[in-house]
Amino acid sequence: MFFKQKILYVLCISFPIVGQAQTVGLDEQINNAFMPFATWWEGFILSTINIGGYQIPLVLLLLVLGAIFFTIYFGFVNIKHFPTAIQVVRGKYDEIETQNPIVTTNVHEIEGDLVDTIKDESHHGEVNHFQALATAVSGTVGLGNIAMVAVAISIGGPGATFWMIIAGLFGMSTKFVECTLGVKYRDIDKEGNVFGGPMYYLSRGLKEKGFVKLGKILAAIFALLCVGASFGGGNAFQTNQAAAQIISRFGLEGGSTGSMIGVIFAILVGIVIIGGIKRIAKVTEKVVPFMAILYVAAALFIIFSNFSFVDDAIGLIFREAFTPRATITGGFIGVMIQGFRRAAFSNEAGAGSAAIAHAAVNTKYAASEGLVGLLEPFIDTVVICSMTAIIIVMFNMDGAFVYGDVINGQALMADGSRVGGVNLTSLAFDNAIPGSSYVLVIAVCLFAFSTILSWSYYGLQSWKYLFGRGRFTDLSFKILFLIFTVLGAAITLDAVIKFSDAMILALVFPNMIGLLFLFPKVRQEFARFIDAIKVSKFHKAIN
């Protein structure tokens, strides 16, 4: 333990506390130092293989084929049991938890004691179904829905939207699998604190299959990558785009403006994450519905205010999904890759991150939370991303920017300027309804804040898996995490996209390998939950 603490201490002091500096050009200096690593990491993770003359990123191939397989294997659970998932979140089946004493999670040993002999049998988690969903949704419904949609469309054209939706629909099945496993293989300590996620189902699940070393290696790799993803896509990208929107809307300029905005975010985040998952859940269950309603209401208002253009936008999305314009690099395959890549970043299906939050749910049936988890890609990608995409496509009907002409993450505008990410979405909002971009500023800040909260929990759980559970472990991670909150606001969109994209996509490799080994366990858990529902209905019918 002493050696681990020494490592953590060195990591903490090796990062400069950039938020304290006030020198002119600080943001540029940080970006120049960060960009080389971001570029290398993106190239490494997005290594391609040649299929029919097209260079396909291996990670996306694994992600898509796995999602299609799970959808077929589980009998289109994403569609057939969508209503069941809604009912679970509403609490319709809560009585099953008390009527039937069956516990479907494994018995694991912590500090020499068996979990099921040290915990209250009436308590099997820390949060309810809705809180778990809100926490996980706050981690997935973030600026990827606003900024990354703009990036996907500016690079891949309107057709990228179609493939984002397809990826979201299939991704629902993958989320079902990983969230079920997250609950099944979780740990609960003496105080009732839950530790779960891919780290645990990779190590414990593969151990059951006889692959002890493989499970440990994959779990460690996932935990390490998840820490990096929490620093990148779950943190730095969020503050980057929030800062960009604030600076753009209010005309704030200066060499260290981004860093100062990052410091403010870091202070606010720090206040919440000190309290752990219970406080995070309490905040997200209030913030997530509000921010979702705010953004969806604004988006729907714009769409219905320009309803005559909606059919044209949708038609363009479908046509260019298969026959993109000549300016789009890679043609049909290029558009598909952009759609799948941005969907993966947005809803994280296959990355396994959300299973960490869902593992904390208070339930005896692992599959019940798997069903709750499948709602995330639908909310995130099918609903919210689609709304953003329609608004951006309508905005570009008159050629406001050039599809396919993107440099450093920014599209070429008709006036010759470069705009990218959240600022492109902001222009689309303002074009539809003048002044509506100020509503977007509020939504952006809330999206960024809630996503950072959730990913702080994901990263901390992974950090604890690597370095042990203790106060120093908690503190060291939270310090580093808050430093990246500041860093994200200082670096450019191009650098943060490269790093964030690659970090989240990297999680797919260890996670999907585990899912392809363990999916039969999910079928067993699912059958038990469905049987419990049938028994409950039968008892109600005869009584």
From TrEMBL:
Membrane-spanning segments: 58-76, 146-166, 217-237, 257-275, 287-310, 374-395, 437-458, 479-497, 503-519
Stored InterPro entries: Na/Ala_symport (IPR001463)
Name of the featured protein: Alanine/glycine:cation symporter family protein
PANTHER family to which the protein is assigned, alphabetical: AGSS FAMILY TRANSPORTER, SODIUM-ALANINE, TRANSCRIPTIONAL REGULATOR, LRP FAMILY
Organism from which the protein derives: Dokdonia ponticola
Annotated keywords: Cell membrane, Membrane, Symport, Transmembrane, Transmembrane helix, Transport
Bilayer topology: Multi-pass membrane protein
Cell compartments where the protein resides: Cell membrane
Family in the record: Belongs to the alanine or glycine:cation symporter (AGCS) (TC 2.A.25) family.
